[in-house]
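Task 17 of the worksheet. Students: predict the tertiary structure of the chain below and write it out as structure tokens. Keep your answer in the requested format; marks are given for formatting as well as content.
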Amino acid sequence: MTQDERIAIEEKVVEMLRTVYDPEIPVDIYSLGLVYRIELSDEGELTVDMTLTAPNCPMADFIMEDVRMKLESIDGVSAVNVNIVFEPEWTQDMMSEEAKLELGLL
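Model answer:
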């Protein structure tokens, strides 16, 4: 995979993550700061480390499956591994300025 191909795929990954929402919050998971790591191997294997706004989030399975399905649809991605992690603990400080504005936190 060339550097240009890698950059194009990584941009598409972010674009797709911006279409995944926690059904209880009207802001996408990327803008909420829930995505901690995106790693793409030369073979096209994609690993995403993400968290949830709360460890006992009732929508965790739904969100994970939405992430996996959308990322698997990207050309050049051969496999997707989505890991839910709880360290570092998510805080509102991790949200983008747009997300804070959308939720009335600014």
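Marker's comment: The chain has a mean pLDDT of 94. Strands lie at 35-40, 45-50, 79-84.
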